[in-house]
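Data availability (excerpt). The following record was deposited with the supplementary files.
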Amino acid sequence: MEQRHQADEVPDVNGGDYFVVKAKDQGVTVIGLTRGKDTRFHHTEKLDKGEVLIAQFTDHTSAVKVRGKAVVYTKHGIIDTEE
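Predicted structure:
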């Protein structure tokens, strides 16, 4: 059976610090930043409207930058980039 959540609920994901980015518009960019002495870009994803990216913070990824209209779901809450 498929588990569904309301738009304002944060899915309960077991494991590490996962986050979900849902694009509200075409061309949303999600950029992963490295951990360590120097912070650098190490991964970029482009999302189209309605696409969802599920990602996890790791030993190599310490921060994420989101460009464009999107909703970001984390265990700490929900962030709408337009607010």
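Summary of structural features: The chain has a mean pLDDT of 83.
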